[in-house]
Amino acid sequence: MASTNFKLFKQKALKDEAVKKEYDELASEFTLARELIKARSKAKMTQEDVAEVMHTSKSNISRLESSHAPNWPNLNTLMKYAAAVGCELQIKLTPIK
Question: Which string of b and e fits 18-27 if b means at least 16 CB within 10 Å?
């Protein structure tokens, strides 16, 4: 039910051009957050598990996985995260359509 309510809210909000512009500008952040969470889930790990492997706190992992984090993680942090969840970090540039 909550998911349906959010989807309806999102659809309505994105009809506003200013909201849509801001949302579109955050696409990279949302994509990164989704990819991190997807890799952790596939590895069947909790945020606490990843934090332990990376020798950091769960709150740091939570911030790293948040699309609302105030700062982008550095490359070294992303490489450690990838290794912790059994992945290889790959970065690619894709032409704009």
Answer: eeeeeeeeee
Number of compact structural domains in the chain:
1
Predicted pLDDT of residue 1 = 56
Contact (CB, 8 A) for 97 and 65: no
Neighbours of 6 (CB within 10 A): 10
Q: Output the pTM of the full model.
A: 0.74
With beta carbons less than 8 A apart as the criterion, state whether 82 and 40 touch.
Answer: no
In a domain, 96, yes or no: no
Please write down the HEC assignment for all residues of 4-57.
HHHHHHHHHHCCCHHHHHHHHHCHHHHHHHHHHHHHHHHCCCCHHHHHHHHCCC
